[in-house]
Amino acid sequence: MPAYLFVNVIITDPVKFRDYGVTNAALVAKMGGKYLVLGSEGIGGDCLEGTELVGKKVISEWPSRDAALAYWHSPEYAQIRKLRDGICEAQVMILDGAAVPSAPPPPSPPSPSANLPTKG
Predict the structure, then answer these.
(1) Residue 92: DSSP 8-state
(2) Is the separation of the CB atoms in 103 and 17 below 8 Å?
């Protein structure tokens, strides 16, 4: 079952943060993740209900919770994470994907012989 990392980040130094983003993106891909959302700063118009989360939204998909946690706790990410020290405030959540039940197959169309008159 897939897992997702949801990040809300307020960036205070976009130039320095770019280095973190590029370096981290390479590690995400190397460790089996992929970005689904690289959202806007979330100021005005993004929130459909409740209090708006100000900050950039990022969602990455991982093959499993274990894969996401392996990335998050890896020595490589520990080094990359230092690139964002002092230049942003981040909230990071891990979310489990839903096990979506498969839909039943559509009904078969009637066979052509079903419309033929019966002998009798």
Answers:
(1) E
(2) no
CB 34 within 8 A of CB 101: no
Dihedral of the alpha carbons of 11, 16, 18, 22, in degrees to the nearest 10: -120
How do residues 61-70 score in pLDDT, each as one tens digit? 999 999 999 9
d(Cα 37, Cα 46) in Å, to the nearest integer?
13
CA distance 78 to 63: 21
In a structure prediction context, what are the per-residue pLDDT tens digits for the chain, which is 120 residues long? 999 999 999 999 999 999 999 999 999 999 999 999 988 776 666 778 888 888 899 999 999 999 999 999 999 999 999 999 999 999 999 999 987 667 777 887 777 665 666 665
What domains can be seen in the chain, in order of their start residue?
3-97 (3.30.70.100)
Partners of residue 8 on adjacent β-strands: 57, 91
